[in-house]
């Protein structure tokens, strides 16, 4: 129990539990081998970001002498110790799973080679001579050749050598842009070679005058938190560009190495990178599993069965779509419904003679975004195009800076939101002149306008021609671009000003209903639940007899089934083929059943430091779809993990197998 006298799970440790659940997907017999390899890569990528941001923040606290315990009763040093211990356990598990997957792939004709054996010496030599050697620059350390700087997430060789009885150390940094995976198809098999393996086999050839004593492969993770102080900044675009380079050069928070280093090498690494021994994580020669994102196999049986995403029935994919939308509201569920419907809507509006304006928020977009290309074309066609770009979307800053420049050059009005707040709300507003009447078409989403992640993230898209919602959408863009909130909000609930208060009121209504002896039920589906005030309110609801079901994919600081606090609360996490991303809220509300979709997670930053939206879905048919989806999540016994106390346990199937993710592949949403 923490000093706050209510149970609270540390957010960093909860996140590691989530990544553990991602890793455990690899152990499922029903997951094809190439998909298992993908999840091993995802696990590694997740861990990279965790260290770059969350662990880096804890290290900063320790360096500043901050010793105050968190809500879970842990000091920064105690949290870091637990992170190190848990991470090293996970790395061992990942290594075990990787080699099991590699063995399985070999039986299916995909051979991940651990060295360049005799059969493939010629191929590896060609790759080395033609591609790798011209790109690398070995540096043998001396008084005139200091240890070179290694950027964030970059790998390097540390080579111990001897010549004429003297010891030498050489460093070979792996270039960022060089291809990491090479394949050679022979005798019906796909032979896979990792860049580091090819280099390792050629070390003696590279240093012919030396005797190679040993070599190590290291990989560096640095503090990459991009803190933007906006006050006084006249040009946010320039400021973000300047900050991006600092991300690559931050303090080292993790050093991965392929094997136990010698005392000499360990001393060198600790001193040069200014780290502690506990910051060294021993992996294997396959040090960067994120590289395996590149690997493709021809055998379709090694992948999940493909499916065709559906368009909503009867929706015309031409200018008649606006006639349809004037009479029908649409709610789609990615990736089961085709997100290109939204791309197509922007494309149609760009060429439509009746379209007056298009307004849009952009948080994370893909490299070859059709949506942005259509926004550019719309501006070129004389439409008024206004785009609010969030330049501070973590790890997408560089992409967003690029798009901002392209849009401005095309004549779009581009702004960067409200100083001090991230714009996380996902909104599109198309305004048309229809027979002298101005009609507004609003799109509100739980997910980003990203045509690539729409295939792997589950998200909800709501399109309506409601005049009241259209007015709210117009007011939202006025708020984002003019920093003015004079509106009477009819349907959209915004953070940071109104959202927390609205959610609290909805929970309080259930509490009062329960006190009167009425049925009271709350279902909340979010990615993260760590906001202390919302957690306290949910504990209060539980203690007053409200049934609370929480579907929390990732971090959850609420401890369910705790006597005296949360006996009426159940928490599950759905982790499977797709990354669960919608935020949906259900309140029984004395039988009225209120359902909302939102862009916000239950985190302090979402409630207090971001612009987020929540909107009630009132259309009975659409509301029923969302309730069915939530209930299916709660019944899932394939992808679900239940939080029991502070630990997750896999939900075990009893009689009927229920897979809430696969269900909508075969069934209409």
Description:
The model is unreliable at 228-234 (pLDDT under 50). The relative contact order is 0.09. Helix 1 (11-24) runs antiparallel to helix 2, helix 1 (11-24) runs parallel beside helix 3 and helix 10 packs parallel to helix 11 (370-380). Strand 8, helix 8 and strand 9 form a beta-alpha-beta unit. This protein folds into three domains: 11-302, polyphosphate kinase like; 321-489, Endonuclease Chain A (Endonuclease, Chain A), CATH 3.30.870; 495-666, Endonuclease Chain A (Endonuclease, Chain A, 2-Layer Sandwich). It is built from 18 helices and 27 strands. It is of the alpha/beta class and 669 residues long.
What are the defining features of this structure?
single chain, 669 residues, alpha/beta, polyphosphate kinase like, Endonuclease, Chain A, 3 domains, 35% helix, globular
- CATH superfamily of the largest domain, by name, is Polyphosphate kinase middle domain
Mean pLDDT: 92
What fraction, in percent, of the residue positions are helical?
Answer: 25-40%
CATH topology of the largest domain: polyphosphate kinase like
CA(first)-CA(last) distance: 42 Å
* Largest beta-sheet characterization: 10 strands, mixed
Total domain units: 3
Low-confidence parts: 228-234
CATH class of the largest domain: Alpha Beta
Structural class: alpha/beta
Give the amount of beta strand, in percent. Answer: 15-25%
**What's the gyration radius in Å?**
27 Å
Q: Report the total helices.
A: 18
| Global shape | globular
Q: Which architecture of the largest domain does the CATH hierarchy give at level 2? A: 2-Layer Sandwich
Query: Could you give the count of β-strands?
Result: 27
């Amino acid at each position: 129990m923490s000093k706050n006298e209510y149970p609270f799970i540390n957010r960093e440790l909860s996140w590691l539990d989530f990544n553990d659940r991602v890793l455990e997907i690899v152990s499922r017999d029903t997951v094809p081998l190439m998909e298992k390899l993908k999840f091993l890569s995802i696990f590694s990528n997740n861990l990279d970001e965790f260290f770059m941001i969350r662990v880096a923040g804890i290290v900063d606290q320790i360096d500043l002498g901050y010793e105050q315990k968190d809500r879970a009763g842990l000091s920064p040093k105690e949290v870091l110790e637990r992170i190190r211990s848990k991470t090293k356990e996970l790395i061992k598990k990942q290594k075990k799973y990787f080699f099991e997957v590699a063995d399985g792939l070999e039986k299916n004709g995909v051979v991940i080679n651990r060295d360049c054996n005799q059969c493939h010496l010629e191929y590896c030599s060609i790759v080395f001579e033609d591609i790798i050697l011209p790109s690398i620059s070995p540096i043998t350390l001396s008084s005139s050749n200091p240890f070179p700087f290694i950027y964030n997430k970059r790998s390097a060789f540390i080579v111990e050598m001897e010549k004429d009885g003297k010891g030498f150390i050489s460093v070979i940094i792996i270039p960022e842009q060089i291809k990491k995976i090479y394949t050679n198809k022979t005798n019906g098999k796909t032979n896979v070679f990792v860049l580091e393996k090819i280099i390792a086999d050629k070390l003696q050839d590279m240093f012919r005058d030396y005797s190679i004593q040993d070599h190590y492969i290291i990989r560096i993770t640095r503090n990459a938190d991009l803190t933007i102080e906006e006050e006084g900044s006249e040009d946010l675009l320039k400021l973000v560009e300047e900050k991006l380079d600092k991300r690559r050069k931050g303090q080292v928070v993790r050093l991965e190495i392929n094997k136990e280093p010698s005392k000499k090498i360990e001393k060198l690494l600790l001193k040069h990178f200014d780290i502690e021994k506990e910051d060294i994580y021993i992996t294997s020669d396959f040090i960067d599993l994120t590289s395996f994102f590149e690997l493709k196999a021809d055998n379709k049986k090694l992948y999940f069965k493909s499916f065709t995403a559906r368009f909503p029935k009867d929706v015309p994919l031409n200018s008649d779509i606006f006639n349809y939308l004037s009479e029908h509201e649409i709610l789609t569920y990615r990736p089961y419904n085709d997100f290109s419907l939204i791309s197509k809507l922007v494309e149609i509006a760009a060429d439509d003679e009746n379209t007056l304006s298009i307004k849009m928020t952009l948080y994370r977009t893909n490299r070859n975004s059709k949506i942005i290309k259509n926004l550019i074309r719309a501006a070129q066609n004389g439409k008024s195009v206004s785009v609010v770009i969030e330049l501070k979307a973590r790890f997408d800053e560089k992409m967003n800076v690029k798009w901002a420049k392209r849009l401005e050059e095309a004549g779009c009005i581009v702004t960067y939101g409200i100083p001090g707040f991230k714009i996380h709300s996902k909104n599109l507003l198309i305004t048309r002149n229809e027979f002298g009447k101005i009609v507004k078409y609003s799109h509100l989403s739980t997910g980003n306008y990203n045509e690539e992640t729409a295939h792997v993230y589950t998200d909800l898209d709501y399109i309506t021609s409601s005049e009241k919602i259209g007015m709210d959408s117009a007011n939202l863009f006025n708020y984002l671009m003019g920093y003015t909130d004079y509106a009477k909000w009819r349907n959209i609930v915004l953070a940071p000003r109104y959202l927390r208060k609205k959610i609290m009121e909805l929970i309080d209504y259930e509490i009062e209903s329960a006190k009167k002896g009425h049925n009271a039920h709350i279902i909340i589906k979010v990615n993260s639940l760590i906001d202390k005030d919302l957690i306290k309110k949910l504990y209060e609801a539980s203690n007053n007899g409200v049934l609370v079901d929480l579907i929390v994919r990732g971090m959850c600081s609420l401890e369910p089934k705790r006597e005296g606090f949360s006996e009426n609360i159940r928490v599950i996490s759905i982790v499977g083929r797709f990354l669960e991303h919608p935020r949906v809220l259900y309140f029984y509300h004395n039988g009225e059943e209120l359902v909302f979709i939102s862009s916000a997670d239950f985190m302090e930053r979402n409630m207090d430091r971001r612009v987020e939206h929540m909107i009630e879905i009132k259309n009975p048919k659409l509301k029923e779809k969302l309730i069915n989806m939530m209930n299916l999540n709660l019944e899932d016994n394939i992808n679900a993990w239940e939080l029991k106390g502070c630990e997750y346990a896999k939900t075990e199937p009893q009689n009927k197998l229920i897979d809430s993710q696969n269900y909508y592949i075969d069934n209409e949403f």
